[in-house]
């Protein structure tokens, strides 16, 4: 046996596990008597130190860290600086399923999809019923049966022409490139101007081959996330949600584009630095928009899953629009219990509400609650630390934040409660009711059939 071992990567774990198995001893006795244990077992000191370190680290990861993650999940506190940050893409060697460059939405479905008995739209609060539980299957069912909540469908283009204009500016079909807005692990966002209507659009640009190589879950690639985001945005239309205009997916090329309305303003916490945040009047206006958009999403059985300041964009006239549906999920039959991983479930609507509370705290105080130096530290603080608010804070506002950041998801304030809260209502009055497209159609059908409209309420 070597007296010192130098290994890298997975070999370190293999060596350490092998050493622990051969030692067949508890960690306590090993730590108590380094030298005699090494001599008796014939292991070098450096190897034994590493094996013990591995065992301690393994115990921490399995018992301590998993327990705090499970507790945060139970509490429904996994939105906004929670689990959305754990979904980090990893490269995989094969794209899987032989898709090549073609990204048909059918690729979101499992290999087989069993037929079910005539699922239907139940007509209550814009909820839809469908035969299966997976988000992608629910979304495909809605699309195939016309259960979408928008007046004008998203344009689908399957022919891509990449060229340049007379000034040498790059073009994607009729869109002329102006400048890059941002970039992420999946792709980039670029500002384009349409030569047809002269308007500016934010275009998300992806390489399909790249997305298919990024593993975000055991059975999902980044392509799954992008296509699910497209499906979700195709069925929605609301003044407080970023609108998807067009999808460009040419099966003969590696390029994939999402053409979105361009929000020319900023994100909600921009300018909310210490010590005073944004000010109550501005925050109230922003919060009313956020709540209105989320109530609409939840009424359509969609959990956003990543509500945070970066995904809340402010237009030039001060309207907040919710964007980025890449980790959003869909539920059915009113059951919003979602699974994060085997054995870890949470209620999606309560998690979104928690994230609204975190965002509100940030807008008011210019910092985040429970934020630790690491993600694990943040989990620990969420579970163990009390919520601290300034004594001089407006009592109504303090009551609202405490209700949103209640650690018991069953006692946490709902979005409907938030909409009626005295601080939110303020001098502006109740949130304006939005008559969505699918409810408008139901209203029209009810009037045509003479069945009455007493039970149809706006949202």
Automatic annotation (TrEMBL):
InterPro entries linked: Kinase-like_dom_sf, Prot_kinase_dom, Protein_kinase_ATP_BS, Ser/Thr_kinase_AS
Which GO BP terms, alphabetically?
Answer: response to virus
Q: Please state the span of the N-terminal signal peptide per the UniProt entry.
A: none
SUPFAM superfamilies xref list:
Protein kinase-like (PK-like)
UniProt superkingdom: Eukaryota
Q: Which residues bind ATP?
A: 204
Q: What does the record give under GO molecular function?
A: ATP binding; protein serine/threonine kinase activity
Keyword terms: ATP-binding, Host-virus interaction, Kinase, Nucleotide-binding, Phosphoprotein, Serine/threonine-protein kinase, Transferase
Q: Where is the Protein kinase domain positioned along the sequence?
A: 175-424
Listed Pfam families: Pkinase (PF00069)
Assembly information from the UniProt record: Associates with the SNF1-related protein kinase (SnRK) complex. Interacts with AL1, a geminivirus (TGMV) protein essential for viral replication.
**Protein family according to the UniProt entry:** Belongs to the protein kinase superfamily.
Q: Write down what this protein is called.
A: non-specific serine/threonine protein kinase
Give the species: Abeliophyllum distichum
């Amino acid at each position: 046996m070597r007296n010192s071992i130098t290994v890298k990567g997975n070999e370190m774990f293999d060596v350490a596990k092998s050493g622990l198995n051969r030692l067949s001893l508890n960690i306590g006795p090993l730590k108590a008597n380094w030298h005699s244990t090494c001599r008796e077992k014939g292991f070098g000191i450096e190897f034994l130190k590493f094996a013990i370190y591995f065992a301690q680290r393994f115990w921490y990861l399995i018992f301590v860290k998993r327990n705090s993650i499970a507790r945060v999940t139970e509490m429904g506190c996994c939105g906004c600086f929670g689990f959305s940050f754990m979904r980090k893409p990893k490269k995989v060697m094969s794209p899987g399923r032989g898709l090549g460059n073609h990204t048909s939405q059918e690729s979101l479905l499992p290999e087989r999809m069993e037929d079910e008995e005539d699922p239907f739209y139940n007509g209550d609060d814009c909820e839809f019923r469908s035969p299966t539980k997976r988000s992608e299957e629910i979304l495909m069912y809605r699309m195939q049966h016309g259960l979408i909540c928008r007046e004008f469908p998203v344009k689908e283009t399957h022919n891509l022409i990449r060229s340049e204009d007379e000034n040498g500016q790059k073009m994607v079909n009729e869109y002329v490139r102006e400048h890059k807005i941002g970039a992420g692990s999946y792709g980039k966002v670029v500002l384009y101007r349409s030569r047809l209507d002269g308007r500016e659009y934010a275009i998300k640009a992806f390489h399909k081959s790249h997305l298919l190589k990024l593993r975000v879950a055991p059975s999902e690639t980044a392509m799954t996330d992008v296509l699910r985001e497209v499906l979700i945005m195709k069925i929605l239309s609301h003044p407080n949600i970023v609108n998807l205009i067009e999808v460009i997916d040419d099966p003969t090329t590696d390029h994939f584009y999402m053409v979105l309305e361009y929000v020319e303003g900023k994100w909600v916490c921009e300018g909310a630095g210490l010590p005073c945040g944004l000010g109550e009047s501005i925050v109230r206006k922003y919060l009313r928009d956020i709540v209105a958009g989320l109530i609409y999403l939840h009424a359509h059985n969609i959990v956003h899953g990543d509500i945070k300041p970066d995904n809340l964009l402010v237009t030039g006239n001060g309207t907040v629009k919710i964007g980025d549906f890449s980790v959003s999920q869909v539920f059915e039959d009113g059951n919003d219990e979602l699974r994060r991983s085997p054995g870890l479930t949470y209620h999606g609507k309560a998690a979104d509400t928690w994230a609204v509370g975190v965002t509100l705290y940030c807008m008011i105080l210019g910092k985040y609650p429970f934020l630790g130096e690491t993600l694990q530290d943040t989990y620990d603080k969420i579970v163990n630390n009390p919520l601290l608010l300034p004594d001089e804070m407006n009592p109504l506002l303090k009551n609202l934040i405490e209700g949103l950041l209640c650690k018991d998801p069953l006692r946490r304030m709902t979005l409907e409660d938030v909409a009626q809260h005295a601080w939110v209502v303020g001098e502006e009055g109740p949130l304006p009711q939005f008559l969505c497209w699918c409810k408008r159609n139901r209203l029209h059908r009810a009037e045509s059939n003479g069945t009455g409209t007493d039970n149809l309420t706006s949202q």
